[in-house]
Specification:
- This protein is of the alpha+beta class.
- The chain folds into two domains: about 150 residues, Major capsid protein gp5 fold, CATH 3.30.2400; about 110 residues, hypothetical protein PF0899 fold (2-Layer Sandwich), CATH 3.30.2320.
- The protein has seven helices and 13 strands.
- It has a six-stranded mixed β-sheet with strand order 5-13-9-6-8-7, sandwiched between helices.
- A hairpin with a 4-residue loop joins strand 11 and strand 12.
Amino acid sequence: MEKKNLKFSASYTSINKYVDELYDGFIPSVVGKVRTLDFISIVPDVKYSKVIPNVNTTLDLVAADTCTTFANGATTSVTGVTLTTCYKKMEESFCLNEMEQYYFGQYMRRGSDQEQIPFEEAFFNEKFGKIAKKLDQIFWQGDSCVGGVLSTAGIAGITASGGAVVTTASFSQVSTAVNNGVIAAIDSAIDQLNSDMLSEELVLAVGQDIFDKYTRSVRNLNLYHFSPDEIDGAAVRLFGKRNITMFATVGLNGTNKGLLTKGEYIHWGTDLAPDEEPIKGEYNMYLDKYLIRYKVKIGNALSFPGNAVVIKAS
């Protein structure tokens, strides 16, 4: 029988080393787990506040019947939306003795799929997933210092700026026909779009629950041979609208809300070039505990809200 090394891997030295290795990899490990970022615009290095410039052009082609004048045939304007980040942190302490008991009880079981995984790696990977979920929720729903894109204040702000809000109780219902339920709600939202946006590449952000109701509706109605291959990373092209991608994000789960606009108009601001690593861990001999501190800056902004449509259940 092969002799197993039962040395507890999560020693002070090994955990410190593991945290040090996260200096360059922590942001990708956490932020990379946020699905929202695959479809919107991320703005790096926002220490506190940054103005995101937006360029808008209108033009008119006129008959070139003379060469004697130079007249404006276009109007280009540059406006900006302010993206302000909020400084957030999370602190935790734990006893290494408790970790050691768990390590021997769970990770060294014979035949365990995880017996070869260093304990500290599994420990921090669990943290990464939870932090990513919390960041996504704050981005969309807001908290005490981050105004969520689709928080109550966010919806009011979009409406006041000219964005259309579609209120429907059927957004959270599986469609039994194309004229009811989630399919009808999405069609109604598309009808509210500015006509100039109809041919643009658009995204529709929803929770996983609404996403599942839509895909189930399409499958049940047998609109076409719907296959799991059509869904790539919890994203799918809307049936009949190949320029609109619906994606599921954990930050909107259970809210019955959605946002339809161009992905480049939705801005996620963060500090991707921190002066110091955003997570620190060390063993404190006086407290006899291992201490972890996580810090991040996060903010959001929406450009051209008049070109956005919000869907929400009444």
